[in-house]
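Section handout 9: paired folding examples.
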Amino acid sequence: RMDFDAALAELRAEYAVRLQRDLDDVSEMVLAFAADTGNAEHRERARFQAHRLKGSAGTFGFPAVSEHAGRIEELLRRAAANPDDATLPTLLREALSALTAARPAAP
């Protein structure tokens, strides 16, 4: 059991390093879409990254990051269905701020 726990702790620590880069990537893509909400490619790239982040953060024990990434993914899906929704850029920036606040300290 101790070997498993140690291996899991090591994987979580390795993921925490990658998580910093993943958060930066999601932030960059969401901001690019928020600045140009007509760009479907930016929207889909941001949605995919948020979806990946939601799943991996949840798997490795970062539930707040997972929750906020899920909110961003939800907003981006909404943007696909309602591209003229003028509230989306503000909502995305607010969700991104919450995601950034949930960022764990760098290892």
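Moving on to protein 2 of 2.
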Amino acid sequence: EDGGLGLARQLAESFVKSADDHLRKLQGAIDVGNAKAIAQTAHTLKSSSANLGAARLSAHYKDLEQRGREGRLDGALTLLDAIRREQALAAQALRDLLHTEAELAQP
């Protein structure tokens, strides 16, 4: 691949492809009140979204992670709704970026 750009492309593609699965996992953990699973999943997603420059999404995940660690699940569904909206925006921005990058790479 083309160095850092290739790695960035792989990270962005992985994020876009796995976004819905991660949201379903969080929804399931919230539904059953599994604070530990919420904290662990949110921690992973906080880091991956930060690495891709999705600062607001990362901040939402940080909040959800903290709530999970503290066992405070009140408001978790409201926060998950905000995460869904922000994740959709981030995923679309990454799709647009990947599309533009692919167009530029064509001769």
